[in-house]
Amino acid sequence: RAEVDRKFDQIIEFSGVEAFLDTAVKRYSSGMYVRLAFAVAAHLEPDILVVDEVLSVGDVAFQRKCLGKMGEVASEGRTVLFVSHNMPVIKSLCSRALLIDAGRLVDDGDTDRVVASYLRTEETPEGESQLRQTDSLMGTGEARLRWAGILERNGATSRSLHFTEPLRVKMRFEVLDRVPEGVIEVGVSTLDGQRIATMMSTDNGGQAFIFEPGLQDVLLEADVTLLPREYILHVSLHHYSGATIDLVDSVTRFSIINVALDGGDHYRPHEVRGYVRPSTRWQAPRRVG
To answer: What is the pTM of this model?
Structure first.
C-alpha cells in the first residue's frame, strides 16, 4: 500500500484515468480496469511482471507505453511473462517463448522456433472452410458465415493462386434475421498474424448490402498483387452503424505461387521482401543538365 501511495501520481498518469478518479472502480469499463491494473503492477517493481493480453485494450498510444514499460522492466534484469496470441509483438519483445495447449507445456525455447511451432498447430483449412457456430468469435448473431473459399479464375476453389492473379473470395452467410445495411470486411494477414490488407464492401463508395433471411452468397474480387507467401483470410460482417454481426478469424489459409498465369511475370528477388506489390509507373533515367 505504501508503495502504491508513493507512486500514485505516476500510476494515474500512465493509466490515463485521471478524469475518473472519483468514479468507483466497479463502474470502470473492462478496458479502463485493465489499463489501471497494468499501471499498478508495472510501477510496483516486481521481480516477475505477468502481462496477460494487455495490448488488446487501449489506444495505440497506451499500447506503446505498455511495450516501453515492459522493455524497461526487462532491461533492469527483471522477468516479464507476456501472455498473448499476437505473434508479431511476441517476436519483437520476447527472447524466449513457451507454447501452452490446454494447460500443457508443448514447447519452450527460441521465440522464432516456438512461434513457428504454434503456427503449425493451427488447424486452419486450406483453400476453403466449412464454418461451425463455435467458429464465430463475437457478434450480434443476425447472420453467420457458413462457408468461405478462395477461387481460381474458372470458379473452382483452390489453396493457391498464381502471382498477379486477382484475389477472389466467395462467402456464404446464413441470415437468420434481415440485415438492412450490412458491411462485409475481409482481411488478409501473414501466418504470424500481421494484417497486411483490409477490404470493406463499402470501399470506393460502395453501398451497404441488404441481407434477406436464408443462405446468401457474396463474391469479392480484389486487384491486389500479393507477393509469394502463405496467407490467412479473415471475414466479418458488420452493421453499417459499426456493430459486429459475425466475426470469424483465420477462416482459411492460402498461398501465392511465384508463377504468373501467362508465364510472363514473376517475383525476381530470391528472398521475398514485403507482402504486396503496388501498381507503379516508372520513368527511365535521363540526363540532367
So the answer is: 0.63
